[in-house]
Amino acid sequence: MLAAQAAPSDDNAAFARLLTDPAEQQQVIAGAGRSSVMLRNPCADARFEIEKKFVPYQAVRFDADGRILAGAWKQSVGERGCGVSRVLNVIVVAQEGGKLGIVPVLPGASHADPILQQDALKIAMQAAATVPGGREADCTVSYVADTEYLGEEGETLAGAKGPPWKERWTLQSCTQKLLVPMRFIPDSTGTSISAGPSTAIEIVRLEH
Does residue 191 sit in helix, strand or coil? Predict the structure, then answer.
């Protein structure tokens, strides 16, 4: 699991300049536009606005000329259009030569880091498949349409970096959405993940 880290104080000013740089912002918006939820729901009228918040995953470092040497963080982008509004997220990673790599991650407000998201998605899809009607015949479409953070749940375990928390993930297929309860429990060795139970997974038919 990636650990959030604060930027060193000497690099804070350079990082603030980078976050407001028009070129960096355009890269972030372009990356958000590559999110699965956008590729599955193209909208010519989509409008994007970078939100004024980020989650650091690796401390940023800059050289004397203000060129980034290292760092990784999540940036969120608000998207509106075609009657829908959503929050898209990307991971920005410093690369060799001062360049930035932009990787889309799950939309919404999940508190899970990118590595945890990958593991959780497998568990969510396995849980959804246990629900009667959860699988659609002859449907190859399956993606995460949204994630919701529902708050902390329980006491922090010994050695854990934070308390357990719960979320609700929306998995979308061809004609329906499945609302899957998710639980994340950090401990001294990492974070365990559970989804469901199947009786708590709600199926919502899509309107056409």
Answer: strand
